[in-house]
Amino acid sequence: MLDTLIFASQIVVPAGEGRALRGAEMNKLKVIDNGAVGIKDGKIAFVGTREEAADLKANETIDAEGKLLSPGLVDPHTHLVFGGSREHELALKQQGVPYLEILAQGGGILSTVRATRETTEDALFEKAMFHLNRCLTYGVTTMEAKSGYGLDKETELKQLRVAKKLNESHPMDLVSTFLGAHAIPENYKGRPDAFLEEMLSMLSVISKEGLAEFVDIFCETGVFSVEQSRTFLQKAKTAGFGVKIHADEIDPLGGTEMACEIGAVSADHLVGASKEGVRMLGESDTIAVLLPGTTFYLGKDHFAPAREMISSGAAVALSTDFNPGSSPTENIQFIMNLAALKLKMTPEEIWNAVTVNAAYAIGRGDVAGSLIKGRNADLVLWDVPNYKYVPYHYGVNHVNRVWKNGVLVAGKADSHANYTLSS
Ligand code: IZC
Ligand code: ZN
């Protein structure tokens, strides 16, 4: 006897074969028309067609005729825990002041650092919880959360502890990344190497308290150079962490190549990745995490070369980059729209990029991002007739209901339950 059996007009079943999908594989997406998914004890217990499910019995049966069912989405790059907000910077942006100039003047990331230092752990927890709930309503059931708004030991640990507590108390699975190397704080101005040493000295306590799995760095003009980033990440790797990098987001410094050379789990942004960087991505296991929402919000016309990356054989994932400065949005569906319009990715590539590949980008490919018997029953029911519809109809939330580990966590059992979009 199953706990729940859900019938839907179409089911998205990304392959989860033990690694991320790369190159031309990304354009293949298994879908089951008129399918069914069974849940037992919080795990996927059945995936197949309506006919194959005919004899199955369940305590609860949901007939979602006209709707799409998919795995819970995975958002692999967010700056979830922060104090304050930066709406005052929008006017500066409109006047043409560049992102890195705002940072150089002590604003941007440093403005959020001041606010985060001033916010209590409890208040940070409540604020992040608010955003986390919103992410869930957009269909995300697993996501990454970075620190990086402390830039001192006390506040970095405060952020990481908030993420840990959220992971323990919220249905979302949160994967934690230490981004102490996010900017150079005022008291270390002109002494980036000394600051990086200070952040490295935190790794033992982070490791001991289980506060992060990954270490990340912002490799950018005026922040950390490629060589500083390489040394820093290599030390983090030696200390047992998986490593990630904010690379070639604004200026093309060559962080993409370095990420491939040191075996980073992911290299993120990559807007300015060189031809050589793109070629190397195609030959390495480093996953390219693209964040078109950030490029859009920074008002740039040039987006990451996703097509070249996929042609070179790279594995591409997509993410919101949710943060209070360069990408204030929890809406991963809008990122799917931008991936279609600005990165020219196909609907199949986009679905693989927000499920299986995003899961591998944060070390969760074995439990999330696919619909395979035995995996976590993380599911999204969509008010759309087919998978191509989500990247197409933009700016709204298409989610009807979300299940995490088999439990309904967003949407209501009766919300739009009988509503189907007529074709
Ligand atoms: O707060 O501006 N790029 N870090 C690197 C960010 C964007 C987040 C922010
Ligand atoms: Zn980021």
From TrEMBL:
Biological process annotations from GO: L-histidine catabolic process to glutamate and formamide; L-histidine catabolic process to glutamate and formate
Gene Ontology terms, MF aspect: imidazolonepropionase activity; iron ion binding; zinc ion binding
Chain ranges of the Amidohydrolase-related domain: 69-408
The protein's required cofactors: Zn(2+); Fe(3+)
Entry keyword annotation includes Metal-binding: yes
Ligand binding (Fe(3+)): H77, H79, H246, D321
Residues reported to bind N-formimidoyl-L-glutamate: Y149, N323, G325
Residue positions binding 4-imidazolone-5-propanoate: R86, Y149, H182, E249, S326
Database matches in InterPro entries: Amidohydro-rel (IPR006680), HutI (IPR005920), Metal-dep_hydrolase_composite (IPR011059), Metal_Hydrolase (IPR032466)
UniProt keyword annotations, A-Z: Cytoplasm, Histidine metabolism, Hydrolase, Iron, Metal-binding, Zinc
NCBIfam families, sorted: hutI
Name this protein carries in UniProt: Imidazolonepropionase
